[in-house]
Amino acid sequence: MTGERRKFRREGADTRRQALVLATLDLIAEQGVRGATVRAIAERADVTQGLIRHYFSTKDELVQEAYLAHMAGLTEQTFAGVAERETARERLAALVVASVTPPVVDSASVGLWAGFLNHVRQDARMRAVHAQTYHDFRDRLEGLIVAALEEAGRGPDAGQARRLAIACNAVIDGLWLEGGALPEAFGPDELTGIALTAVGAILQLDLEEAAKT
Amino acid sequence: MTGERRKFRREGADTRRQALVLATLDLIAEQGVRGATVRAIAERADVTQGLIRHYFSTKDELVQEAYLAHMAGLTEQTFAGVAERETARERLAALVVASVTPPVVDSASVGLWAGFLNHVRQDARMRAVHAQTYHDFRDRLEGLIVAALEEAGRGPDAGQARRLAIACNAVIDGLWLEGGALPEAFGPDELTGIALTAVGAILQLDLEEAAKT
DNA sequence: GTCGTAATTATGCAAGCGTATAATTGTTCG
DNA sequence: CGAACAATTATACGCTTGCATAATTACGAC
Q1: CB under 8 Å to A97, separation ≥6 — which residues?
Q2: What is the rounded CA–CA span in Å between residue A42 and residue A212?
Q3: B38 touches strand C (CB under 7 A)
Q4: Staple A88 to which of A148, B59, B90, B127, CB 3.0 to 4.6 Å?
Q5: What is the pLDDT of residues B140-170, one digit of tens each?
Q6: Nucleotide nearest to A16 (CA to C1')
Q7: A63 CA – D3 C1', rounded, Å
Q8: A40 and A132 both lie in a single domain
């Protein structure tokens, strides 16, 4: 019984890095940050742990890249299908609906986000990623809000637009969070209706009709 | 130089348990869950680590109790001073303001909450505490909303009341979260104004005037 | 007082962690 | 075909972790 050395295939750097990032996200989502050990990540990505050090000089570096990937994916999922809509109001409604619907609303995704938050509070680079993601999303939301209001003949000034975007973003974030953290607390389409009504009330726009398109 | 054994005082069980819980919360808030090791907690509480096992049969038990204490404290802080107000609308406004103002809005507090969330997703007992805290807060909020609307001559039905409470709760949660996670992103009283306007818009009530009382 | 006991300290252990480094092996290029 | 090189595996080290257990000590009861 000679201990046989494991066979392996060579892969490009991008492929391997991506696989490791994906494995990291899976593990954090499933078992929290504690479960995402170097050994577990390597096993999930079907490599040995030494390889991680070959692509990331430290584990924090890997975690940081995973965070970036997760946040980018979240924003992308949320805005998918928004641009196709005809009117600005419909685009806004589509964004609101997507924000509180799977796959964006998801227990694992919220857990992932929460797991990262403490890293964010301690690492300056991760804090920068966090701030950038947040402002990026809010700016795009603000753009949609301004367009929808102008479409309705009401152009808000800059200060108003900012405040409206913050408020709408808060509703969306709050519902996203609660929907992910307590999935069984809400009915199937309940969050969608509440989100449209609430954002509509804040902006004084009828979004519920616009969402049906 | 004989290694001198450490002097100590005997304390009641309640005192020590509370001290350990407080030390745990401090550490999680400051350094995240990773920093809250048994040894660090003991040092912060000025005892040796063995004592923790004397009061809590496992570390998770201590963490669970700390979570309970934190959530209870948060709710208590939020509702402090609400009952004293004259009208229901003023009470509601006071609650909204308190929810997005320090000490409730606080980076460490949000970090603490996020740090617990992953424990919550994995431990059934912690999930129960989480759900209970959330529903408790939302029910009290719903009570205030119904009272304020009735005061204004508009009594919502049960379904409406529930949806309004969920929406207002989402605004509050979202602003609480963002205010705590990105303190520098908002002006001093900005969150207060936005919260009052947004909740007021959802309920179609003027809360900004009521908050001045 | 001194005695009993519960509170507290001291010490140790096995497991898991991130990281470092040396040994192999697949791949590419002449 | 063979040599060079990077990708990958294998192994090990030092540290920290949560938990266990034995040794001490403060404090109240009598």
Answers
A1: A192, A195, A196, A211
A2: 45
A3: no
A4: A148
A5: 999 999 999 999 999 889 999 999 999 999 9
A6: D7
A7: 38
A8: no
